[in-house]
């Protein structure tokens, strides 16, 4: 399942490169609120899709740069950084006026109606099941694929009372995170997953789950353990830097992406 966690830098990189992210000295007193997709008004949905399409049309490097996500333990802080970069680019490059939405797939799974989730609405969402292309290459059979998951139960237990970070991250990454990638598949499956617009709504929800587990608990806000590599030879540390793969000038540090309301981050979720 980990093979899906490769990252297409082409999805984000255009002429726009992130700049060095300083640790903010100011405190986060008015965090922006990331809302669930169905909490958005029709015009807010249209504005997000407009900006997402705009970002996609920015000039791309001539050679696609596909890079395997190198450090297993960093999935959560790395995607937190990546999401913030994406949200910043929507604003700076495409004049986006909203905040990054998330897709709470557990709502659809609980209703046993994921197939008709509002995110797949062909008018106000990200499109439906698509058409057959005639190709038999896995992931390319349809031009838009959402997959047969009406009966898949992806409900995410949000309690995790006694888990440390490593246990929580393994559970979150292995099941709901990877499941959504492989159920949608198409662009969402392989190295091109950030090309799929739902990638960012999905990862915002994964990020929300981590933020919910953290709460405002100082121990959990600093809990970062595990290994950097799948062979479990390199211990992960909160002082580790994370690879930017040409998306920014400086490598962000894990410790700056632990708290969504400190340092370079200042946001919250409509439901935590
Ligand atoms: Cu992912």
TrEMBL record:
<dbReference type="GO" id="GO:0016491">
    <property type="term" value="F:oxidoreductase activity"/>
</dbReference>
<protein>
    <recommendedName>
        <fullName>Tyrosinase copper-binding domain-containing protein</fullName>
    </recommendedName>
</protein>
<dbReference type="InterPro" id="IPR002227">
    <property type="entry name" value="Tyrosinase_Cu-bd"/>
</dbReference>
<dbReference type="InterPro" id="IPR050316">
    <property type="entry name" value="Tyrosinase/Hemocyanin"/>
</dbReference>
<feature type="signal peptide">
    <location>
        <begin position="1"/>
        <end position="18"/>
    </location>
</feature>
<feature type="domain" description="Tyrosinase copper-binding">
    <location>
        <begin position="74"/>
        <end position="160"/>
    </location>
</feature>
<dbReference type="Pfam" id="PF00264">
    <property type="entry name" value="Tyrosinase"/>
</dbReference>
<keyword id="KW-0186">Copper</keyword>
<keyword id="KW-0732">Signal</keyword>
<keyword id="KW-0479">Metal-binding</keyword>
<dbReference type="GO" id="GO:0046872">
    <property type="term" value="F:metal ion binding"/>
</dbReference>
<feature type="domain" description="Tyrosinase copper-binding">
    <location>
        <begin position="167"/>
        <end position="215"/>
    </location>
</feature>
<dbReference type="InterPro" id="IPR008922">
    <property type="entry name" value="Di-copper_centre_dom_sf"/>
</dbReference>
């Amino acid at each position: 399942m980990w093979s899906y966690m490769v990252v297409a830098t082409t999805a984000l990189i255009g002429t726009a490169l992130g700049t060095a992210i300083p640790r903010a000295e100011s405190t986060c007193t008015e965090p922006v609120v990331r809302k669930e997709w169905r909490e958005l008004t029709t015009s807010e949905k249209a504005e997000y899709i407009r900006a997402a399409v705009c970002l996609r049309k920015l000039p791309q490097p001539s050679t696609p740069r596909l890079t395997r996500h190198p450090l297993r333990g960093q999935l959560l802080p790395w995607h937190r950084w990546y999401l913030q970069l994406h949200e910043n680019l929507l604003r700076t490059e495409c004049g986006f006026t909203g905040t990054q939405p998330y897709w709470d797939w557990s709502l659809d799974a609980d209703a046993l109606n994921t197939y008709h989730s509002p995110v797949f609405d062909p008018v106000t969402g990200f499109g439906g099941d698509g058409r057959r292309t005639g190709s038999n290459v896995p992931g390319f059979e349809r031009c838009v694929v959402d997959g047969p998951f009406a009966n898949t139960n992806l409900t995410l237990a949000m309690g995790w009372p006694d888990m440390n970070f490593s246990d929580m991250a393994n559970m979150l990454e292995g099941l709901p995170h990877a499941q959504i990638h492989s159920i949608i598949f198409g662009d969402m499956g392989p190295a091109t997953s950030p090309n799929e617009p739902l990638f960012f709504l999905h990862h915002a929800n994964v990020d929300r789950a981590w933020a919910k587990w953290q709460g405002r608990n100082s121990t959990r806000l600093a809990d970062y353990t595990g290994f950097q590599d799948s062979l479990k030879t390199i211990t992960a540390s909160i002082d580790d830097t994370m690879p930017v793969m040409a998306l920014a000038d400086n490598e962000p540090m894990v410790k700056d992406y632990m708290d969504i309301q400190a340092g370079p981050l200042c946001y919250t979720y409509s439901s935590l």
